[in-house]
């Protein structure tokens, strides 16, 4: 039996530790850490549009439902659907706690009482809990009356014949009327909040006083990553108007830690299961390939968890390949930033991918102030941006990271009254692919060769030993027989994905056409 969820109401900001603006990843991680209190989690999302439509997270044992927007996956709405399965209280400044519904037992681990009132009465809400407010809003289609306060609203059932616009709220609602639900939202009223609920820029969690009292200091979340090509990424923070650059082959681990804080984990493991494709690609060329050529040949196979070091001189002998691999593993590791939504491969320097044709010589893209020539230094050589798409196999291992490919812009259409759109993390991959083919068509001798290089490769992450499997990032839970750390069991996650490679980019695409992860190298 679950313990009763007890939480302080902060109108317009939070219900206990459930803070408006918190990421889906953060909330799920916290809920899953307390299985006795939150024994069941029901995730509801659109299978066809999982990154555009809102995501709902139900807590049936606690009588609560949480709603997140699709693109950012931030908590936008907290709904109380059953008042008997939780204990909500308000603590005004310099005043005593006020219970929304008084539980029959005050023991900290008391189970939900069976003889508790089904919910707060209108009189209790209006007279004691929150006090008077303006007249509410009647919704005829749903036959409900919404009593709204700043940041909080209560929904009462009301038949059409019982409603009259000439009556005030006290005349319309019986003193013993019990609401069917309560909502916590950001806004002055429910009517006003509905218009901007899914798109409003919510304040940083750092400004929420109960969280700000903690001693831990952590960097602001990265809200957007702009991919400029040529191994250059610009990372933005929404609440500070500041950005910084990661330049592959130049940015050091010390610079990463200075900007992003220490990684949530450091993982050292190398995946060589796709090496055969590099050898075959190299053998199809007439000239003897160099180490860098072998490393960059057909980067479609260089999946998101490891780079594939090669010797300076290619040798088809298996032992030589193994020796060269072992010789280059030293110091190579992934910096896992689960709460930022990406991972960074730190290794000895490699030459970043070439800049896209339309960006070659762009003066708006900075160059590193100086270049180190030490071949054994460690630098960032690859970044993996995770989409955290609901229904995907690696769901909830990382926070969702939003990204844009800055050089893939669709010009505005005056006739259709459209604005400039940039290829981004919410765009179906076929649209991104069409723009990438157009951008890079000049580097291929023919259309046939371009399609050959850009063809997809299917992976099944559910097998546990597929290249680029997330066990390479998390330290092998698949190898140890663990279950998928998503929401619940047997939820039918999509384990089959397809990799598509372009210069400097590898996309992992789900069957619904959305990008689960993109690797920048």
UniProtKB/TrEMBL annotation:
Cellular component, GO annotation: trans-Golgi network
A Pfam family annotated for this UniProt entry: PHAF1
Residue ranges, compositional bias (Acidic residues): 312-322
Chain spans, region Disordered: 99-118, 286-323, 349-372, 470-494
InterPro entries per the UniProt record, alphabetical: PHAF1, PHAF1/BROMI
Source taxon at top rank: Eukaryota
GO biological process terms on file: Golgi to plasma membrane protein transport
Ranges of biased composition (kind: Low complexity): 103-118
Similarity field: Belongs to the PHAF1 family.
Protein name (database record): Fbcb59ad-36da-43c3-aa91-6f3387551ac1
UniProt source species: Thermothielavioides terrestris
Phylogenetic placement of the source organism: Eukaryota, Fungi, Dikarya, Ascomycota, Pezizomycotina
């Amino acid at each position: 039996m679950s313990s009763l969820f007890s939480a302080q109401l902060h109108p317009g900001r939070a219900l206990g530790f459930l803070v408006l603006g918190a990421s889906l990843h953060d909330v799920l991680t916290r809920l899953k850490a307390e299985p006795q209190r939150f024994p069941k989690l029901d995730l509801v999302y659109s299978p066809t549009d999982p990154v555009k439509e809102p995501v709902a997270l139900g807590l049936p044992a606690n009588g609560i439902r949480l709603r997140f927007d699709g693109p950012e996956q931030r908590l936008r709405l907290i709904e109380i659907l059953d008042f008997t399965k939780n204990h909500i209280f308000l603590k005004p400044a310099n005043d005593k706690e006020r219970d929304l519904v008084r539980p029959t037992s005050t023991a900290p681990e008391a189970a939900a009482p069976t003889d508790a009132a089904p919910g707060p009465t209108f009189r209790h809400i209006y007279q004691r809990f929150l006090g008077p407010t303006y007249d509410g809003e009647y919704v005829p289609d749903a036959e409900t009356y919404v009593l709204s306060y700043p940041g909080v609203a209560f929904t009462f059932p009301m038949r059409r014949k019982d409603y009259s616009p000439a009556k005030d709220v006290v005349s319309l609602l019986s003193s013993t009327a019990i609401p069917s639900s309560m909502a916590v939202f950001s806004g002055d009223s429910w009517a006003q909040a509905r218009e901007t609920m899914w798109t409003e820029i919510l304040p940083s969690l750092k400004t929420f006083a109960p969280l700000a009292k903690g001693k831990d200091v952590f960097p602001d979340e990265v809200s957007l990553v702009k991919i400029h090509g040529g191994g250059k990424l610009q990372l933005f923070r929404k609440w500070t108007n500041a950005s910084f650059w990661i330049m592959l082959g130049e940015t050091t681990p010390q610079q990463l830690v200075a900007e992003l804080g220490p990684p949530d984990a450091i993982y050292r493991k190398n995946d060589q299961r796709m090496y055969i494709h590099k050898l075959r690609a190299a053998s199809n060329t007439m000239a003897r390939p160099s180490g860098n050529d072998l490393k960059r040949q057909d980067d479609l196979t260089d999946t998101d968890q490891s780079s594939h070091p090669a010797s300076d001189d290619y040798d088809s002998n298996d032992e030589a390949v193994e020796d060269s691999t072992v010789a280059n593993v030293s110091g190579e590791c992934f910096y896992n930033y689960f709460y930022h939504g990406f991972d960074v491969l730190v290794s000895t320097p490699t030459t970043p991918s070439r800049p896209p044709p339309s960006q070659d010589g762009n003066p708006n893209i900075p160059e590193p102030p100086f270049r180190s020539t030490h071949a054994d230094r460690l630098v960032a050589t690859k970044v993996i941006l995770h989409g955290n798409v609901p229904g995907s196999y690696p769901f909830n291992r990382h926070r969702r990271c939003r990204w844009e490919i800055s050089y893939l812009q669709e010009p505005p259409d005056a006739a259709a009254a459209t604005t400039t759109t940039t290829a981004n993390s919410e765009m179906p991959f076929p649209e991104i692919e069409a723009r990438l083919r157009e951008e890079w068509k000049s580097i291929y001798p023919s259309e046939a060769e371009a399609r050959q290089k850009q063809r997809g490769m299917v992976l099944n992450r559910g097998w546990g030993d597929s290249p680029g499997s997330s066990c390479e990032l998390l330290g092998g839970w698949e190898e140890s027989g663990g279950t998928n750390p998503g929401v619940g069991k047997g939820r039918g996650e999509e384990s089959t994905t397809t990799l598509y490679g372009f210069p400097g980019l590898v996309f992992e695409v789900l069957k619904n056409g959305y990008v689960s992860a993109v690797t920048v190298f």
